[in-house]
């Protein structure tokens, strides 16, 4: 593509490429001051991508196939891609959603993902906290036996963070700091006995749940096999319905030639069997919800008991390793020093896991920020701003409709932006969509009044990204469709309108003139029309740019072709 900028530019005879179409699109987006943030972050769906300059053209063009279309109000909204994208960016176009709100929405999305990740980490920490706590208890109990800890309370009563802190304090201990007491050794022995007992209890529970899980799994498989068997039988007996329906009429057997030769009794047996099988198949069509809940509960309990068993066995192993030391080395300074080295390694491992208090503080901070952002991005307030904008546009349109050739000029209208159409409310309270209202003149009236209403609204905004122009192509076509279709009379360059049609077309230009006056010439309206100056000549604000009629007066001049 070729692009030139400046107060005054000279178009070269042979333009040379100096940019790309992508760069031109970006430049137009920047000139329109459009946000470069997507309507919804973290989505690959193009329907929610950022608004672009080309999306705004929906408000700037009313070509022949749209200007009086009963089903499509906006340019290019007759395709799913453009229609869905336009609906999604509508709040932004109306000014109800600002670039600042889009930025905050993106921040909310990012923080929400971070919050979910931290909540998963916290839940994971809570899920395995029991296992870690028991393991740390093993180290602390061994330290107590060696006389490295002097506590007057039960270790099990400490929180996970307090246990980690206590374990960390052992790192600074020396073997010479130990003070081995008979009482500590006795308590350690009793603790191992208690742990062995708890291990057996958990093991028995785990075995019981495992058996139950196995039985339930086998039952589910049996139900599936039985259901499949019933389905096969039902399919085989289904033909009995068809045969029974044939036997209900008066037919002659094609083989023996006798009437009523059908084996009705046998068919009735087949039919009864089919009904019974269908009932049984219905009973087994799905596993009861209570059974499924119990099945999942058993699986969860197995996971929980397995974790507890592994943790207790690890604690027993830690304390047993001390007891399994040779009698000569068990309580020697050398063995205690070796134990302290193991404690240092274990302490570093637990500290890398983090603590739930730290995570809770981070989660609280994220929740506070999200609460603040959601208060700023008030979806209810956005909806109110959308409704206020639409009511304003509707008010502009209602003032213009009576000027046009409409059958219901005084009926109020509503703009349904989620369906990109207009709803007309009758005196009887009935709401009619645009496509439910007959007559091309009605469709044209609502197209012109509503699109002008949008531009009057954009004109009043402090800033609007929508370009300040709109093009109407052949709006008068609804008044002479047959003559437009005729191709045999090329001499009649412009169809002649009847008197009442001339009045109707003149109303189009009067409406356009009224809208321009209301906006103080705030936007430009371009009309491509067959109607000549006898229709619009005396109407204010109309300026004829060019008349493409007669010899060599075409949109594309002959010299361009030659």
UniProtKB/TrEMBL annotation:
Keywords: Coiled coil. Pfam families: DUF3732 (PF12532). InterPro entries: DUF3732. Residues 101-135, 178-205, 295-322, 356-383 form a coiled coil. This is DUF3732 domain-containing protein.
């Amino acid at each position: 593509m070729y692009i030139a900028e400046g107060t005054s530019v000279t178009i070269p005879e042979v333009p040379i490429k100096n940019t790309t179409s992508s760069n031109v699109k970006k430049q137009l987006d920047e000139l329109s001051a459009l946000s470069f943030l997507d309507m919804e972050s973290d989505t690959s769906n193009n329907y929610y991508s950022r608004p672009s300059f080309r999306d705004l053209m929906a408000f700037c063009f009313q070509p022949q196939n749209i200007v009086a279309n009963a089903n499509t109000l906006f340019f290019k909204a007759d395709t799913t891609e453009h229609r869905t994208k336009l609906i999604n960016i509508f709040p932004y176009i109306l000014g109800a959603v600002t670039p600042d709100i889009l930025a905050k929405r993106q921040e909310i999305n990012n923080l929400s993902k971070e919050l979910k990740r931290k909540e998963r980490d916290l839940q994971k920490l809570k899920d395995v906290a029991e296992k870690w706590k028991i393991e740390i208890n093993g180290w602390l109990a061994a330290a107590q036996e060696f006389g490295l800890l002097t506590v007057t309370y039960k270790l099990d009563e400490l929180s996970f963070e307090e246990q980690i802190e206590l374990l960390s304090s052992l790192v600074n201990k020396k073997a010479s700091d130990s003070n081995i007491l008979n009482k500590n050794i006795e308590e350690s022995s009793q603790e191992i006995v208690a742990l062995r007992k708890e291990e057996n209890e958990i093991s028995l529970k785990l075995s019981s749940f495992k058996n139950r899980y196995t039985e339930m799994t086998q039952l589910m498989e049996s139900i599936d096999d039985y259901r499949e068997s019933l389905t096969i039988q039902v399919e085989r007996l289904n033909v009995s319905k068809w045969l029974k329906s044939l036997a209900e009429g008066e037919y002659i057997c094609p083989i023996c030639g006798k009437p009523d030769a059908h084996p009705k009794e046998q068919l009735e047996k087949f039919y009864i069997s089919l009904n019974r099988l269908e009932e049984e198949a219905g009973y087994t069509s799905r596993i009861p919800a209570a059974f499924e809940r119990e099945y999942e509960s058993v699986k969860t309990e197995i996971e929980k008991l397995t974790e507890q068993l592994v943790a207790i066995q690890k604690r027993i192993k830690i304390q047993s390793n001390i007891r399994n030391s040779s009698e000569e080395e068990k309580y020697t300074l050398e063995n205690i020093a070796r134990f302290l080295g193991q404690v240092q390694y274990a302490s570093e491992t637990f500290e890398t896991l983090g603590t739930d208090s730290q995570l809770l503080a981070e989660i609280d901070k994220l929740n506070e920020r999200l609460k603040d952002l959601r208060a700023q991005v008030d979806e209810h307030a956005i909806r109110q701003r959308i409704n206020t904008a639409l009511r304003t546009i509707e008010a502009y349109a209602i003032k213009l409709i009576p000027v046009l050739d409409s059958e219901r000029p005084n009926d109020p209208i509503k703009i349904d932006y989620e369906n990109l159409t207009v709803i007309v409310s009758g005196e009887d309270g009935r709401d009619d969509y645009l496509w439910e209202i007959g007559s091309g003149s009605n469709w044209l009236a609502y197209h012109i009044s509503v699109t002008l209403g949008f531009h009057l609204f954009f004109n009043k905004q402090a800033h609007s990204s929508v370009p300040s122009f709109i093009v109407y192509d052949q709006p008068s076509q609804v008044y002479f469709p047959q003559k437009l279709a005729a191709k045999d009379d090329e001499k009649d360059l412009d169809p002649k309108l009847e008197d009442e049609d001339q009045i109707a077309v003149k109303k189009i230009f009067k409406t356009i003139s009224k809208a321009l006056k209301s906006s103080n010439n705030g936007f430009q309206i371009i009309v491509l029309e067959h109607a000549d100056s006898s229709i619009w000549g005396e109407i204010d604000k109309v300026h004829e740019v060019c008349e493409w009629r007669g010899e060599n007066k075409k949109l594309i001049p002959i010299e361009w072709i030659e």
